[in-house]
Write a structure and sequence with these properties.
Layout (H helix, E strand, L loop, with lengths): L8 E5 L2 E6 L4 E3 L4 E7 L7 E4 L5 E2 L7 E3 L3 E4 L8 E7 L2 E2 L4 E6 L3 E4 L5 E2 L4 E7 L8 E5 L2 E6 L3 E4 L8 E7 L3 E2 L3 E3 L1 E2 L4 E6 L11 E6 L1
Parallel strand pairs: 1-23, 3-11, 13-21
Antiparallel strand pairs: 2-4, 4-8, 5-6, 5-9, 7-8, 9-10, 9-11, 12-14, 14-17, 15-16, 15-18, 18-19, 18-20, 22-23
Length: about 210
């Protein structure tokens, strides 16, 4: 893997913020999801994009999705809508990126879709699609069991950088959730690596570093 000094990169100021409602990084197939781009300059206009081998414009129209003046409302999200999303203007990507997972399975982990600040409390919820969301659940970080909870909720108090990692949960007789990455930040400036639209794989491609203020 190359270092930043081995790449060409440009610095762009992010002037928009992509938010997800309900605020979660995982959804069941068929759930309602709303994606909104909040801009400093509301007159600039925006396009919602999703990663693929090439960046694709999200088709926010038709029976399953509706575009309003401020958001894209997907009434029944399909599994193929999993991916990394961002808002883009004519000048290029202008927002943070969010990674959404849509599963056809029976268990999801509701976790923060945006980075959390050091010192904050974070609550994770392990839930099934068809039964009450207060079933006993086991929570894992980076593949290792960290806690079993009798009601499916787990709160991490006063999070620190050591709490950053890949989380998932399991409910006996129902199954295991997909994994989601939780990012912890204490900086007012955050840099995101964006290579070939796969932020976890940076090689010899042109990189763009986005400054979040």
């Amino acid at each position: 893997m190359k270092s930043l000094t081995d790449h060409q990169f440009s610095l762009l100021t992010l002037t928009a913020r992509l938010t997800v409602s309900p605020s979660s990084s995982q959804f069941f197939e068929g759930d309602f999801v709303s994606l909104s781009c909040e801009e400093d300059d509301s007159s600039a206009g925006w396009t919602l994009r999703r990663n693929a081998s090439k960046p694709q414009r999200l088709q926010c129209a038709g029976q399953m999705a509706k575009l309003t003046s401020s958001s894209c409302n997907i009434s029944k999200i399909p599994t193929w809508d999993s991916g990394v999303y961002w808002c883009e203007s004519r000048e290029g990507p202008i927002s943070n990126m969010v990674n959404l997972t849509v599963t056809g399975g029976s268990v999801i982990l509701q976790s923060p879709v945006l980075p959390v600040m050091e010192g904050d409390d974070v609550t994770l919820l392990c839930k099934t699609k068809t039964t009450p969301s207060n079933l006993p659940a086991a929570f894992y970080k980076d593949g290792s069991l960290i806690r079993k909870q009798p009601t499916g909720h787990m709160t991490i108090q006063h999070v620190s950088r050591s709490d950053e990692g890949l989380y998932k949960c399991d409910i006996s007789a129902h199954g295991e959730s997909p994994s989601s990455w939780i990012t912890v930040t204490g900086d007012t400036l955050t840099c995101l690596c964006f290579c070939s639209f796969q932020h976890s794989q940076c090689d010899d491609n042109l990189m763009t570093v986005f400054a979040l203020f």
